[in-house]
Amino acid sequence: MFRINQPGFIINSPPILNKPEISAQTKVFRQKPEIVDEVLKWENNGKKSSKKQPKWNISRFPLSCYIEDEPSQGFNKAVNISFKSWSDITGGLLDFKKAYSIDNADIVVSWTDEKFPGREYEAGSNDLKVVNNKIEKAFITIIIFPAIDAGLSSDARVERVRRTALHEIGHAMGLDHSNNPKDIMFHRGIVNKNLSSSDIQRLMEHYQKNSLDIIT
Ligand SMILES: [Zn+2]
């Protein structure tokens, strides 16, 4: 369930349900759940997707980002730092700005306390609304207290959120998992602290192709 932080702020349904109606030509591109535990195996774990990865039209940048308030943990700041990391490595080409409502946001970051039996090691997830292989809206959900946070200090939990957000923002840009254990986009990306040169290269290649799409 989603945590409600603001006194007097009434919400009837989780923000993730506020998605616009999906037309026949729209699909929601669901990324594989994140796992960071060596024991759990997901059926597609480590396999490279052959699907064509969607992306934002470059004219949509700076993308507006709505981050649901989670003030008690310093998590919001960690998510903002993660957005800035992605922006900085592209020299600001892929830039982000703050949105003040979910409806007006390109990317929505929500928090959840929900845990799923058998998926206790999931740290975050990602839903992309995609039309004609272009991303129209991205929903990032970060789990507030996943099993991997057990025994961690509050600072370490903030750091885990930062890494989770780095990984999920990569998906929100249309990047699939990588097979390189040093990448943030490795399917167990939370073991890594920072974006790798390979992460950066994959993102730049993804969006250089996008520039050509606009010309044609
Ligand atoms: Zn992932």
Number of helices: 3
How many extended strands? 6
Please state the average pLDDT score: 77
Helices and strands, in order, run as EEHEEEEHH
Low-confidence stretches: 1-22, 35-49, 210-216
- Count of the domains: 1
Enumerate the strands of the largest sheet in spatial order, edge to edge or round the barrel: 1-5-6-4-2-3
Structure description:
Helix content is 25%, strand content 17%. Helix 1 crosses helix 2. The chain has a single domain (15-215), classed as Collagenase (Catalytic Domain) (3-Layer(aba) Sandwich), CATH 3.40.390. It is an alpha/beta fold and 216 residues long. Bound molecules: zinc ion (ZN). Zinc ion binds at residues 31, 34, 167, 171, 177, 187.
Blueprint (SSEs and pairs):
Layout: E1 26-30, E2 63-67, H1 75-89, E3 96-98, E4 107-112, E5 124-131, E6 134-143, H2 154-172, H3 197-215
Parallel strand pairs: 2-3, 2-4, 4-6
Antiparallel strand pairs: 1-5, 5-6
Helix pairs in contact: 1-2
The structure holds zinc ion.
The site of zinc ion has 6 residues, from α2.
